[in-house]
Amino acid sequence: MMKIYCQPNGGISFIPDIQDLGDLKIFGCSTPADYNDGAVLYNSTPNAPTVIVQEIEIFHPDFVFIETFSPLMVAGLQRVRTIYKRPIVGFWGDCVTNAHTLNVLARAGRYCDLLLVVDKPAELALRAKGVNAEFTLQPAAGSIYKYEPDAKKIYDLVMAGNPYTPQRKTNATQRVELARLFSKRPGFAVFGREDWFKYGIDTKGWVNEYKLAKIYNQTKIVLSCDYIIDRLYFTSVRTYNVMCCGAFLLIRKFLGIEDLFVNKKHLVWYETNEEAEMLVDYYLAHEEERQEIAHAGMEYVHQKALKHDLFSMWMSRVYNSQCKQLSAVTRMGDSFWLMGNYAKSSLLQLVQSCIVKYLRRKIG
User: Fold this and answer.
1) 347: pLDDT strictly greater than 50
2) According to the model, what pLDDT value does residue 351 have?
């Protein structure tokens, strides 16, 4: 049986979907059952770079899968590569938004045989830096998001997610206005944090992934409006999880969507909130057409984006990366960069400590 070492990074990890693929060891855990899915262990573990080296040295895995990318992980992978010569695959499941993140990914990524990203510009930028980066669809959690054919439709229309600050997210305003537009309708529900209240929108609150999967099965139309729509091929994992449940998805058109899906075959997209309103009315009135699209979308996602199948493919590849023979100059450059990061972090902690002490003295 193949031995797999995984280092998860919060959210719903790959763990529930891959436990049958081999003998599994999770960073910081004695057994897979000890891992609380969603926990971020690496960055909160004292001396994490030493711990990951020790665990890999003892476990002797055939395959290593990394989800956390930070200066701490660069330090860990540097040391791991001195003892481990088998495949290391990394997965970065978010949109790269600043130069610092891209720099960390580039430094950590060159110690990986393959770095998977869900953002096409990130793939191109990382490849230009010599990283073996590859674009992938957002993997769907098929172990959680399953189709329930006998589920009763309780909601006409559901939005799931949270509002975001318009200054920081390119499409945050449309997302809020869309929820406000439909909030007056019966049969509409928003599931997300209480932040919605400040926009005058009621929310049924945050629910966990398992309850969310049930809600998608109980909904006629799931309405999605990503807060970022101008990054090529970038969309929320919600897109694939909704479709995985066999739910009909009405989604805000994002850059490159035509290359990933067929409109009115796998899902339906809109550009303006007025268009969304018209499409909601149409597909609520045309149940058979709505169900046909939802079913085709589910089959498509099951073929293209299930975590179990994607992970199995990544694990079974033959790798021949140059990362195992990185030059001494490259390693030295990363070491100096790490020392600079640690120095800045220590200085920041010192400044914060001095400020706290000063304020305490002033307050008395």
Assistant:
1) no
2) 46
